[in-house]
């Protein structure tokens, strides 16, 4: 078996997804997913997930959407590749349907039932219109691998869209089966470490190109009609926090590689506070009902019923 390619010079490379995920850097490198594990969990979790160390489970990597619809949209919109093979089965439950689906996947294609194929076409129509209207996702390249060093620590990233203009913003495309509202997306963004991505990717590109891009934009489009599109970016304060997290990740990675010690969680007690998002939602909720007349029993009952995630409304001594 041929030895994997090892890249020993920072730069921008056109690599396959497999080459990227296997980590082609001269030394085991830090990407968004591993950095998230380092700072949110522990070095032991990062070691287990890294392809050059434990390789036991995948970290949250810089890859297209995991859903078939998202992957099909990603390939068509960013790379110009039509990977969809549409089938007329009512479901994938029959043995014949499963066999055709598996054979299609083995060919590197994406098998979709009719309704999902129609969804892909509708989402693409919205994205093409967005591109024409805004000029985003033009004059650049998709899925280029950026490799750079933070001192002696190797890092890698794979932006969805790297513009030719080194000062233009980088782009990330997400297709969601949920909602693209800010209230909803902030939780999903936290799960996939989009905050780290928003500082790590531009930092890597700036290190290689010697000019800083205008941050990063996240385009989120809904699978369901009317296929709403929202474009998000992180505030300056959020990016400051994310940068501190990334720098801590670099520090931990350097220390663990130097000592070959990858500590797990410690035994210290951890106090749980209300989640920041939940606190924000509760504050907004209470502000929205503060002006209600206590005599308006219907209004108070409705407000209570609509309390987000069953927050502790009893403390407000609701009547009824």
Structure overview:
This protein is of the alpha/beta class and 320 residues long. It contains 11 helices and 10 strands. A 3-stranded antiparallel beta sheet has the order 1-5-6. It has a 3-stranded mixed beta sheet with strand order 8-9-10. The chain has a two-stranded parallel sheet with strand order 2-3. It starts with 10 loop residues before the first strand and ends in a 15-residue tail after the last helix.
List keywords for this structure.
single chain, 320 residues, Lambda Exonuclease, Chain A, 3 domains, three-stranded antiparallel beta sheet, 43% helix, globular, disordered C terminus
Describe what is shown at a glance.
This protein is α/β, with parallel strands linked by helices and 320 residues long. The chain has 3 domains: 176 residues, Lambda Exonuclease, Chain A; 65 residues, no CATH class; 41 residues, no CATH class. It has 11 helices and 10 strands.
Which helices and strands, and how do they pair?
Blueprint: E1 11-13, H1 17-21, H2 32-40, H3 43-49, H4 68-79, E2 84-87, H5 95-106, E3 110-113, H6 114-134, E4 140-142, E5 145-150, E6 153-157, E7 161-163, E8 170-176, H7 182-191, H8 194-209, E9 216-222, E10 229-232, H9 236-259, H10 276-289, H11 297-305
Parallel strand pairs: 2-3, 8-9
Antiparallel strand pairs: 1-5, 4-7, 5-6, 9-10
Helix pairs in contact: 2-3, 2-9, 4-6, 8-9
